[in-house]
Amino acid sequence: MKIATWNINGVKARLDTALTWLQSAKPDVVCFQEIKSVDANFPKEPFEELGYTVATHGQKSFNGVAILSRRGIDDLRPRLPGDNDDEQARYLEADIAGDDGIITVASIYLPNGNPIGTEKFSYKLAWMQRLETRVRERLSLEMPLVLAGDYNVIPEPLDAKTPKAWVEDALYQPESRSAFRALSALGFTDAVRTCYPNDGVYTFWDYQAGAWNKNNGIRIDHMMLSPQAADRLTASGIDRETRGWEKPSDHVPVWIELSI
Q1: Residue 243 sits in a domain of what CATH number?
Q2: pLDDT grade for 108, boundaries at 50, 70 and 90
Q3: Which of 72, 95, 107, 152 stands the most exposed, by the fewest C-beta atoms within 10 Å?
């Protein structure tokens, strides 16, 4: 099973790009972030024509996540538990049937958190704590679990071309990185870092200051695998060429292959 994640940065603005990539990459499951669309206005039909079942948890103009599956969707759970007052659409969880059992896939769009010292940063850290609580619950089921998405966290210095440029940014704060490490401490495997241990591996290049041409990137899109999923990991990759396409997202697709 090939599972991919991509912060599409507006599904309507990037529809042709997404369809072109899907026809080439042919993932079985795709997690989109920042779809920037309410559920009723998400352009399902072109994706359904490619054989995907489409599930969305949207929000007008901002945020929003989706899961597309060529294996169907057995069960769907939107919203991250733990705060009934949180109206931001950032989490969608689905059970999907593989050839050898059920796998749970979550599409995650973690809060940015900037500027530091504001309620936005507090919200980011609280959201990450809620994610850890949810993950602990899912781990108790001992089923394969994939947490796929835009984490808005630069885990280590080698995950940025110029780490010093990010020291005042919420993505690189000790608290953000510590919360990310807490996931690893639960037994999760960072699939991309496992397959590509060296530097120069990025998933995001800003639109400003020629970041793409200078390869001034960061790695903030992650595929975190529970032990049951990590045991089935056979490959991982980053389709960085999409960043050079016309009207690109500032993120690129990240994918894994599991023997399930």
Answers
A1: 3.60.10.10
A2: very high
A3: 72
